Amino acid sequence: MRSIKEIYKIGKGPSSSHTIGPERAAKLFLKDNQTAERFTVSLFGSLSKTGKGHGTDRVLREVLEPTPTEIIFRTDMPERLTHPNTMKFEAWKGDEVVSKLWVESVGGGDIHVVGEEEDPARIEELEVYPENSLAEIAQQCRLWNCTLAEYVEFNEGEEIWDFLATIWEAMQNSIHEGLNAEGTLPGGLGIARKAKILYENPAPNEVPQVTEVRYVSAYAYAVCEQNADCGTIVTAPTCGACGVLPAVLYYMKDRRHLDERKILESLAVAGLFGNLVKHNASISGAECGCQAEIGTACSMTAAATSHLMGLGMEQIQYAAEIALEHHLGLTCDPICGLVQVPCIERNAVAAMRAINACNLAYFLHDTQRISFDLVVKTMHETGISMNQSFRETSEGGLARMFSRRRPSV
Ligand code: SF4
Question: Residue range 51-78: average pLDDT?
Fold first, then answer.
């Protein structure tokens, strides 16, 4: 299994598969086609259906222009394509296509060039974990008598802490920026930012439990509103689900006065769980619906919080299992293709749910019947059998009902 560095990427929102992935693909194509007279980029599947709302065309133009660039939102899906997020880049000289590249945006900002084997040296560098399931990892930890955070360090080397410190700094920046921003999010839905309002306005005689909900939610809103506004965030594991993990970690650090090292350890643990889902299932909404994005983020956060609270391996894996299990079947149906409704609120709800999963695991881990590995497999199977309209196409669920109610925005 690959390094947890593959899970956390600092980049611009609003979507890892629709903005970070295409941006990387366009840079790759541009590097080999500096002398092209014009470019065409054809977007297929989910990239075509929600690319406008997610800003895919904007990000492609930012990379490829000033060379004239045409973006084509294709409604067909050629049979040979195997991924719902596929792009075709073409470089032109006169009337002739001089270069062509098919690229899949496979989730979390990762890309796959169709027909190209990955560089073996890069694979070797990234494949740092011999274990590929939580059962195997737990066995290894028992053998070495180590925690999950120590297991990450053994496999990734000490430099992982510097990497995670950079990630944590970027996460905190997105919270600070989001809490200080006001106004309306772009895209035409007229959604007002709410993080600052939530943060600054306690209820009369507010009890501590409500304060916790208000602060955790405010932090999640802050990050997600930055994401929706094309700001810089960290994928955890994706842009759409970027608010869950930082919200809970920031709350824990701030209110419970935890030291930074403990937070970095919890990021390592969260990364491991995100990686297990990515390796054995998917973290892409276009492939497996929102359960793969928010469900995974909630699971990562439950594991991280459990580590922060000093829980053991069994409780950590049970918390992560609960968090993913109760997102099974969750569809991806962003209205108007924007990562705003239901996405932003969903991050806040998932953050609270991660804390609850952790509390439940603390009391009930002896009674666990479903393993984390099993729920990951179940999520994958559920996702691939989900109707395509519920997988980041904005053609089903809330997106469809909303558009029937309100024809255009
Ligand atoms: S509904 Fe979920 S998976 Fe879909 S764009 Fe929003 S956060 Fe991402």
Answer: 92
- What are the pLDDT digits (tens) for 261-310? 999 999 999 999 999 999 999 999 999 999 999 999 999 999 999 999 99
Q: Which 3-state string (H, E, C) describes 321-348? A: HHHHHCCCCCCECCHHHCCCCCHHHHHH
As a residue count, the chain comes to 409
Ligand 1 centroid–CA 333 distance in Å is 7
- Which helix (H) or strand (E) segment holds residue 151: the answer is helix 148-156
User: Which run of H or E residues covers position 178?
Assistant: helix 160-180
Alpha-carbon separation of residue 221 from 33, 349, 357 (angstroms):
40, 10, 20
Distance CA 246, CA 236 (A): 9
Distance, CA of 337 to CA of 334 (rounded, Å): 5
Which residues touch 299 (CB under 8 Å, ≥6 apart)? 273, 274, 277, 320, 321, 323, 324, 327, 354, 372
For the chain, how many helices (H) and strands (E)?
A: 18, 7
Contacts of 48 (CB under 8 A, 6+ apart): 73, 74, 75
More confident residue, 17 or 385: 385
Domain boundaries, the chain: 4-122, 128-405
Q: Please name the helix (run of DSSP H) or strand (run of DSSP E) that holds residue 12, with its range, or none.
A: strand 10-12
- Triad 347, 274, 106: Cα angle to 5°: 90
CATH 3.30.1330.90 fits 4-122, yes or no: yes
* Per-residue confidence (pLDDT) for residue 407, from 0 to 100: 52
Categorize the per-residue pLDDT at 76 as very low, low, confident or very high, splitting at 50, 70 and 90: confident
Residue 408 has pLDDT above 80, yes or no: no
- Tell me the β-bridge partners of 101: 89
Tell me how far the alpha carbon of residue 199 lies from the centroid of ligand 1, in angstroms: 24
- Rounded to the nearest 10 degrees, the angle between the axes of helix 313-325 and helix 372-384 is 20
Question: Does the beta carbon of 290 lie inside 6 Å of ligand 1?
Answer: yes
Answer whether residue 153 shows pLDDT above 70: yes
Q: How far is residue 97's CA from residue 359's CA, in Å, rounded to a whole number?
A: 59
Candidate from 346, 390, 398 with most ligand 1 atoms within 8 A of CB, to mutate: 346
3-state secondary structure labels for all residues of 92-131: EECCEEEEEEEEEEEECCEEEECCCCCCHHHHHHHCCCCC
Query: What is the number of the ligand 1 atom nearest to the C-alpha of 292?
Result: 3
